[in-house]
C-alpha cells in the first residue's frame, strides 16, 4: 500500500501561520514593501508644530489596497517619535476609520483575517482602527445601525491626544484594473469626516497628504489576498532584505489656519495635492 503524502500548505497558509507565530515581525517586514519618502521633511516639521503649537495632524492618503493601513502605521510611529519631547508624548497616535465590511468579513474573509491579526501590532504603533458603516456597506451588505459613536470618537480625537488618518476615497477601487490599466484616484464625497474635522478645528489642523502608488502589488484588491511576490519576500527575508514594490510619497504640509477654509475642504484641491505626488 502506498504511503499517503500530506499536502504542503499553500503559500498563503504559510503566510497566515507566520503571522500567528510572529505578528510584529511580519507587520514590520510587510510595511517595508512600501518605500516611504518624505522629500519635504514634513514629518519632523509637523512634529515640531505639534509640540510648539498643539497642532492636530490629519493624514490623508490615496488608497489602492487593504495593505495601505501599513503605511499609516509607519507614519503614525514616525509622527509620535517626531512630536516626543523630554520623554513626553505630545501625540498619542492616530485614529483611522475602517469600513465595517472589512471587520465583519463581508468584503472578504481573507481581509478580515489580516485585519484581526495586524490590529494589535498597529495599535502598538499608536494607530487605532475605528469601524464605521459606509453607505455602500448598507447597500451591498445590508449593514444596519448608525456610526454615531464611532464618528463622535473620531471627531473628538484631539481631546484624547490623537489626530486622524483617513482614506478619503473610501474604497480600494483605485487599485483595481480596468482594460489593463489601474483605475487611479477616485472622487471623494462632500461632508465626509475629513471635511467635518477641518471645519471643527480650523485653527489647529495641519493636513499631511500621502500618495500611495503600487499598493495593489502587495494586497490585490481583486482577490483580497497578498500577492505572491509580497508573501515570498516577507517569508524569505528579514526587514533589511525587503525590496519595496510600492511607494508612499509624503507631500508638503497644508496648514488650514494659513489658508481659506473653503479651499482646504474643496475636494479638487485636496485630491490635487495627492495627484501631484503620483507618477505622471
Short description, anyone?
The chain has twelve helices and 14 strands. It is α/β, with parallel strands linked by helices. The mean pLDDT is 91.
What attributes does this structure have?
two-stranded antiparallel sheet; alpha/beta; 40% helix; 14 strands; 280 residues; 12 helices
What is the molecular shape?
Answer: globular
Work out the helix count: 12
Order of helices and strands: HHEHEHEEEHHEHHEEEHEEEHEEHH
**On the 0-100 scale, what is the average pLDDT?**
91
**Residues in β-strands, percent:** 15-25%
Distance between the termini: 63 Å
Uncertain residue ranges: none
Structural class given helices, strands, pairing?
alpha/beta
Percent of residues in helical segments?
Answer: 40-55%
Q: Please describe the biggest sheet, giving its number of strands, its sense, and whether it closes into a barrel.
A: 8 strands, mixed
**How many E strands?**
14
Rg calc: 19 Å
What does this structure look like?
The chain is of the alpha/beta class and 280 residues long. Helix content is 40%, strand content 20%. It has 12 helices and 14 strands. Strands 1, 2, 5, 6, 7, 10, 13 and 14 form an 8-stranded mixed beta sheet that branches. Strands 3-4 form a two-stranded antiparallel sheet. It has a two-stranded antiparallel ribbon with strand order 8-9. The longest helix has 16 residues, at 109-124. The chain is globular. The model has no long low-confidence stretch (mean pLDDT 91).
